Amino acid sequence: MKAIRRFTVRPVLPDPLRPLSDLARNLRWSWHAETRDLFQSVDPEAWASAGGDPVRLLGGVRPDRLAELAADRRFLRRLTAAADDLDDYLTGDRWYQTQSDGLPAAVAYFSPEFGITAALPQYSGGLGILAGDHLKAASDLGVPLIGVGLLYRHGYFRQTLSRDGWQQEHYPVLDPHELPLTQLKEPDGTPAQVSLALPGGTALRARIWLAQVGRVPLLLLDSDVEENDFGERGVTDRLYGGGSEHRLLQEMLLGIGGVRAVRTYCRLTGHPQPEVFHTNEGHAGFLGLERIAELCATGLDFDSSLEAVRGGTVFTTHTPVPAGIDRFDRELVGRHFGPDAELPGIDAQRILALGMETYPGGEPNLFNMAVMGLRLAQRANGVSLLHGQVSREMFAGLWPGFDPEEVPITSVTNGVHAPTWVAPEVLRLGARQIGSERAEDALTVGGSERWDSVAEIEDQEIWELRRTLREQLVQEVRERLRSSWRQRGAADAELGWIEGVLDPDVLTIGFARRVPSYKRLTLMLRDRDRLTDLLLHPDHPIQIVVAGKAHPADDGGKRLVQELVRFADDPRVRHRIVFLPDYGMAMAQKLYPGCDVWLNNPLRPLEACGTSGMKAALNGCLNLSVLDGWWDEWFQPDFGWAIPTADGPCTDPDRRDDIEASALYDLLEQRVAPRFYERGRGGLPDRWIAMVRQTLGLLGPKVLAGRMVREYVDRLYAPAAQAHRALTPDTARDLAAWKARVRSAWPGVSVDHVETTATTATAELGTTVGLRVRVDLGDLGPDDVEVQAVSGRVDAEDRITDATTVPLKPTGTPDLEGRLVYEGPLSLDRTGPYGYTVRILPSHRLLASSAELGLVAVPSEEVVEGAGVLMR
Fold first, then answer.
1. Where does the record place the DUF3417 domain (predicted)?
2. Beta strand 640-643 with 750-756: parallel, antiparallel or unpaired?
3. Across the strands, what pairs with 222?
């Protein structure tokens, strides 16, 4: 019989066990091994069946077992120690508290998804896992972050396979009362809510759930409340689900509702108000509009409010392709803003102007969330060095007249949260080597260039560790594979072969990620006969574990999954290659440590960062990857192998896949597998172990989320907080007025004449020549601009590369025509073809970049002809 109503019945813990509830409600348990061990000891079988979720565990423990534990002195001592440790973690000073003054009192971090733990399934892939790791690392470092997201009642989706290998999606309903969440409440006990106005006089309401991630509160907005109509209740139903208007409402709730939730949380708890707002990808970009509206409500005009908001905003882009950005029809966006909808005090046309693609190559009728994010943030970054370069090229149209390398988008390379992703066996080995406290600091705070203590671990110990992890993965794979085949309709009598799947002594390769086409799940199948030979090689066999989800609407991605599954179903190779459905955090935490090689073969340069290989590396797994994302930045032959690429505008896509697949097979056949099986005098693979040691000792410190968050604090949060404080209402008005004056006057700014003291077309290295430039500043003055000499090597078309800029100085008062003369030295510090130009840029102490306004004046063709010569 089916129940007509559902309740969540919480256990009543005996008084001595009350701290278990606090430990379960703080998600630090998800990365704190001692706390997880404590919960496991409550009831090992129940812990396993609860999937390692303490809230579910405590909801199912028998009362007699609780009474038994309440009288167990040894258990109570462990419980007291764990509770005291958590209290010390939450209240003691950490890295952030030891830094100099001037850091932000609080930072609000907005993301559409957060991967904290499998027990809180609010993520789809790398963006969410990165956001979760960002929160955890901020907690470990003591950074006063507030996370903001949405609570999806169906999460992303659960993946199974049909008998013929087609992906099938399932959307289990998540009950917030059964998750590690608490509801934010007003002082009178009623649920705290935020509300958005919708066209037609209706409203979208959402309650606020709180997930405590160590020291960091994560606020999750949930629209499934009785006050909403049916359509509005479903706004937070699924992650990345629904059509355009559904997605727009999700992103309005995340951005606008998210700011309102932060204000509510700070009001109710006394938490400091954020001085910096960090937008993790464009989905949350509307947060800037709400903050502008807040300031407009105090009497500040729109332009001044915009400047004040920009100063304290950081925007991180994660996509290297325009297709990865949410774009909405302008009429749809316009309908949701204005007098009869949300933000009625702001002209909807001003809102639309922030997101319109009004630049060469853009589509003027589309509202681009990333473009709005960039226009609303004074500081922006990509997530690896290469991705920063790709982003500068992709968004260069927003800063016309500037070379892509001058576009004000920097990069902070992603990192991963080591305590979450490093296997307990690896952690114990590190603790034995240097002590548990030093090991914890090394993995969380980071800061060292290398982990020298890795060099002191015996080869035998490293090799035994690697085999142990591989053996654990083999058992995990067999259990998951059996479960998958049962879901596909197989009977137990058909599955005896699964006991022979994978071998703990065979080179194991992992490949697991989302399945968009650019990640090329099936590149390994390009030459199936050659792959089969590698899998079944008599001396150097390999085995491959594959996992990944295609987006529910992506039939092309589902076909790739089916193609891989059908190959893995072949009885000839199914003991050597497996596809595991329902890839998520729980699977990943077994997969990364158990693999010897992590494979990544995207189309370069379409992988923004690709952090899965980082997680593998922290467990001593070597990377075999295309030089893209983070691997392009940190690859060394000591850490793994680089798959040669055939990228270029003239390469046919099919031919490119053929070339790169062949290169992958060559590497596996000639270098990777032979090295794994090669044995030295002691019977160990000495050269392989040396690579594992180098990966742990030299690459490990680089890939930490602690390093990443410290970079965000130093390079983005601290400057943003300073700008926020500097942009008082009066200062913001002055800056807005100055920008308006400069934009209005800029057509009258020009370079009238350039001359140099050089008399020939050649010069010796180290020579200094003088530049003299006459400029017309129109209605602007010398304090409004900077006149620069730009010099460097030149290519065959006289384009300056690797440019150096030097400010020139005014030499006196304006002449009779109002022109000013600027002079300065030009040092010829490089040999070969060398050239220079001059330009005029707006200059103001509150600009984060001289390119901020997208204005530049350069010499006309007539001026160029008389400007001297190129040095060759």
1. 13-120
2. unpaired
3. 207
Classified as helix, coil or strand, 663 is helix
Q: How do residues 444-488 score in pLDDT, each as one tens digit?
A: 988 888 898 999 999 999 999 999 999 999 999 999 999 999 999
H-helix segments, 43-125: 44-49, 54-60, 63-70, 73-91
pTM over 0.90: yes
DSSP string, 368-418: EHHHHHHHT-SEEEESSHHHHHHHHHHTGGGSTTS-GGGSS-EE----B-H
Please state the φ and ψ torsions of residue 481, each to the nearest 5 degrees. -65, -40
Which segments of 189-286 does DSSP mark as H helices, in order? 230-233, 244-252, 258-269
Q: Which two tokens stand for residue 196?
A: 């958005």
Q: Could you give the CA distance from residue 291 to residue 277 in angstroms, rounded to a whole number?
A: 10
Matching residue, tokens 């020298």: 452
Rounded to an integer, what is the distance from CA 862 to the centroid of its chain? 48
Burial class (CB in 10 A: 0-12, 13-18, 19+), 71: exposed
Q: What is the dihedral of CA 270, 112, 545, 568, to 10 degrees?
A: 150
> Is 311 exposed, middle or buried, given 0-12, 13-18 or 19+ CB atoms closer than 10 A?
buried
Return the H-helix or E-strand segment holding 604: none
Please give the Cα distance from 658 to 649 (Å, whole number).
16
Q: 694 is written with which tokens?
A: 């180098």
Distance CA 519, CA 651 (A): 18
Q: Give the type of residue at 234.
A: G
Asked if 618 and 454 count as a contact pair (C-beta separation under 8 A), the reply is no
The amino acid occupying position 3 is A
Residue 95, CB-side half-sphere exposure with 13 Å CA sphere: 19
The one-character DSSP state at 166 is: -
Q: Which residue has the tokens 């603790």?
A: 431
DSSP code of residue 527:
T
Write out the two tokens for 434: 């240097």
pLDDT tens track for 194-234: 999 999 899 999 999 999 999 999 999 999 999 999 999 99
